[in-house]
Design a protein that fits this description.
heterodimer; A: alpha+beta; Butyryl-Coa Dehydrogenase, subunit A, domain 1; Butyryl-CoA Dehydrogenase, subunit A, domain 3; four-stranded mixed beta sheet; 11 helices; about 15% strand; B: alpha+beta; Butyryl-CoA Dehydrogenase, subunit A, domain 2; about 40% helix
């Protein structure tokens, strides 16, 4: 079993470095920790100006969209680099939900059909679309049991979907539903009669959540049957795999910030970072993050190349990177002492994002359970 | 410029001139060295062609396919991994020409006389003395954890030549003749029952000054070359998915359904993920090296390897239940090579305990990562500027 070890390119290419530099410069200027902090309780669903600059100015919204639909036609490797940077700045933009998950769901449908092509074109231009599933949904979960939304023969949708990430800023909803002929995927315009978006108070204020109630709104069918199931699974697989890159960027910020603080903070007449009890923790974290980078790059490369190993690579990346990001944020907070507990210091933004990311798109235990089947290590 | 095609041609010429089927293995190895195909990144005339290190794989694959003998590198790890790069970097032309060929062919085994009972992590505090006597040096002291000392013809040795200087400055590096009078090797039995290592007692051992590597007092700088290569050697091996320890654990899990529990299953999956990610991290490091841009990941690979080996071997022993209560053989053996995975679960568990100690303890490696990679401030070092002879011992 697993006789063939898949090869993948785990480094960053020159165009990826250039893309990173552009995104990082934008986020440094427009989404520094102080900006994010100040905007946190504004009630705005996302930083729309920043989203426009990222989505259209840099063109990041269309990285995964083929050129014929107005995208850049690049791959998950490039999207992963964007996510490293949005993670590093806990940016309040719907990049993962719209430009990765929703776009991948559409790419799994028949792109020769007008409604699919039109939606891809809109999303590439920065329209925010989200897949209407609860944010903790793992790639192998949808349609295992009937989805919470039912479609009647006319395409009218009924049901409630809880904790949908970035739903408050969504203009288009992609709704997995139990249709007249079984599994189906529908599109719905979000500001429409029959769509009730009820924002929740999220643990992670940088990724808004809402409950969606669909009360007879007319959906546009995008895919049915196995195609719909596969499209949703591919979307969540890409989302989970690339979430690892967001977690990597987030963890790197936490380590860098902890190192900077402990280098300058003096107690007992020494910089506290000179104590082995502290420096060993940061060194161990550095190793975990170096490993997380390899896992995240492997997943991004497997997704980019359509490797048959992608499900394993994604499960490994989520099972590994989610806890690393949480640990990095927790360590960063602890190493800041009392300062880490203040609202004023941004580390809590990273802690809340990391802890919420851990539950997103399948918790680590779910991904390990998926691995048990994929690599033939069956449960008792 | 040496490229893949050129190396293939050279390899083909070597095989044609010295057909492995009809050539004595040692003759073949000598011819391979003289053809520059031993380690292609070494200089011409010293077994190499000044070619990129990554091209060695081309030669190795061609020779393996032709059934050519190898130099049993596992038996020569100290010589190949530590003595050779140190000689290359700091040795004289005469020393390189004398030593590198028999070192590579395996005619002469090497060992390393560094650690002492009083100098482990703090290697620079070592006490073995080298006193100059005309054009000779007289060595007195005790070394420990010396693998292959009982097989070795030569040793790399660090000794103190000036006790009045601070500890890093008073050291000098030598090649020690293991057959010289006054060299006594005693086996050091480990918790596994075997004796991979030795204690080496040096009593009035005389070495000619021509056996000195580098300048008098430069021993620490030379030793650092050796130690950097040691860590690369221990942490840098390439493995396929489920290679090494995790492959054994996974195979045990698949073969013994009656022993499975939910708790062991959860822990195995976590270890499997850790092993796969560590494999990918090593692979990423190799890709960086291939591009000529080594990352700092290398500093951490040994840490990850040691932790994994200990956790997986511990898991395996627990999983095996009744079979984990027995041990294959406590006989005092003196293995020529070390295979961390070559024996039964009990041995693997016990041997892995050494992985976080040998070649730099995990604690010292964490200091290195913290200070050299992360740039964290150093611990205050009260012994740094004190004459070695005045240090508390």
């Amino acid at each position: 079993m697993t006789a063939d070890t898949p090869a993948s390119d785990l480094l960053y290419g020159e165009t990826e470095d250039d893309l990173r530099a552009a995104v990082r410069a934008l986020l440094a200027a427009r989404s520094g920790p102080a900006t994010v902090l100040a905007d946190l309780e504004s009630g705005r669903a996302c930083d729309a100006g920043l989203w426009d600059a990222l989505a259209n100015g840099i063109g990041a919204a269309g990285l995964l969209v083929p050129e014929e639909f107005g995208g850049a036609g690049t791959s998950a490797r490039e999207a992963a680099v964007v996510l490293e940077e949005t993670g590093r700045s806990v940016a309040r933009v719907p990049y993962l939900t719209s430009a990765v998950i929703a776009v991948t769901a559409l790419l799994g449908c028949d792109t020769g059909r007008e409604p699919v092509a039109a939606l891809l074109t809109r999303l590439a231009a920065g329209t925010v679309g989200v897949l209407a599933v609860p944010w903790p949904t793992a790639p192998d979960q949808p349609f295992r049991t009937a989805p919470p939304v039912r479609a009647d023969a006319d395409g009218a949708l009924h049901g409630t979907v809880t904790s949908v990430a970035d739903a408050p800023s969504a203009e288009v909803l992609l709704v997995p539903a139990d249709g007249p002929q079984g599994p189906a995927l529908y599109a719905v315009d979000a500001p429409a009669t029959g769509v009730i978006t009820t924002p929740l108070t999220p643990l992670d204020l940088t990724r808004p959540l809402a409950t969606l109630t669909l009360d007879g709104v007319a959906g546009t069918p995008l895919a049915t049957g196995e195609r719909a199931v596969a499209a949703v699974r591919a979307a969540l697989t890409a989302g989970a795999g690339l979430l690892a890159s967001e977690q990597l960027g987030l963890a790197e910020w936490c380590l860098t910030t902890a190192v900077r603080h402990t280098t300058t903070r003096t107690q007992f007449g020494r910089p506290v970072g000179s104590f082995q009890a502290l420096k060993h923790r940061m060194a161990a974290l550095w190793l975990d993050i170096a490993s997380a980078r390899a896992a995240a790059r492997h997943a991004a490369d497997a997704l980019a190349t359509g490797s048959p190993d992608a499900p394993v690579a994604v499960a490994v990346a989520q099972a590994y990177c989610a806890p690393v990001a949480v640990r990095a944020a927790e360590e960063c907070l602890q190493l800041h002492g009392g300062t880490g507990m203040t609202w004023e210091h941004p580390v809590h933004l990273f802690l809340k994002r990391a802890k919420s990311d851990e539950s997103a798109l399948g918790a680590p235990g779910r991904h390990r359970a998926a691995l048990a089947e994929l690599v033939e290590l069956p449960a008792p | 410029m040496t490229d893949t095609a050129d190396l293939r041609a050279r390899t083909a010429r070597l095989l044609a001139a010295h057909p492995p089927a009809t050539t004595a293995p040692l003759d073949f190895l000598r011819a391979r060295f003289d053809a520059g195909l031993a380690w292609v990144h070494f200089p011409e005339g010293l077994g190499g062609l000044d070619a990129p290190r990554t091209l060695q794989a081309v030669v190795d694959a061609e020779l393996a396919a032709a059934g050519a003998p190898d130099n049993d590198p596992g038996r020569l790890s100290i010589g190949l991994g530590m003595a050779a790069p140190t000689l290359l970097c700091h040795g004289t032309d005469a020393q390189q020409r004398r030593h590198l060929r028999p070192l590579w062919t395996g005619e002469e085994v090497w060992c390393q006389l560094f650690s002492e009972p009083g100098a482990g992590s703090d290697l620079a505090a070592l006490a073995t003395r080298a006193v100059r006597d005309g054009d000779r040096w007289v060595i007195d002291g005790q070394k420990v954890w010396t693998s292959s000392a009982h097989l070795a013809r030569w040793a790399i040795l660090v000794a103190r030549t000036d006790p009045a200087l601070p500890k890093h400055q008073g050291l000098t590096y030598f090649v020690c003749d293991m057959t010289a009078p006054g060299v006594e090797v005693r086996p050091l039995r480990q918790i596994t029952g075997e004796a991979e290592f030795n204690e080496v007692f040096l009593t009035g051992v005389q070495l000619p000054d021509s056996h000195r590597i580098g300048e008098v007092g430069q021993g620490w700088e030379v030793a650092r070359t050796t130690l950097m290569n040691e860590r690369v050697a221990i942490g840098g091996a390439s493995t396929p998915r489920e290679g090494g320890m995790i492959g054994i654990a996974a195979a045990d899990w698949r073969a013994r359904p009656e022993l499975r529990t939910h708790d062991l299953h959860q822990r195995l999956l976590t270890l499997w993920v850790d092993a796969e990610v560590t494999r990918l991290t090593g692979e990423r490091l190799r890709q960086q090296l291939t591009k000529g841009a080594p990352g700092p990941e290398g500093s951490g690979m040994k840490l990850a390897f040691a932790r994994l080996a200990q956790q997986i071997s511990g898991w395996d022993l627990e999983f095996l239940a009744e079979d984990g209560l027995t041990y294959d053989d406590w006989t005092l053996r003196r293995p020529e090579t070390v295979d961390f995975t070559g024996r039964e679960a009990g041995y693997r568990y016990l041997r892995a305990k050494g992985n976080s100690i040998e070649g730099g303890t995990s604690e010292v490696l964490l200091n290195i990562v913290a200070e050299r990679v992360l740039g964290l401030p150093p611990e205050p070092r009260t012994d740094k500027d004190v004459a070695w002879k005045d240090l508390p011992r």
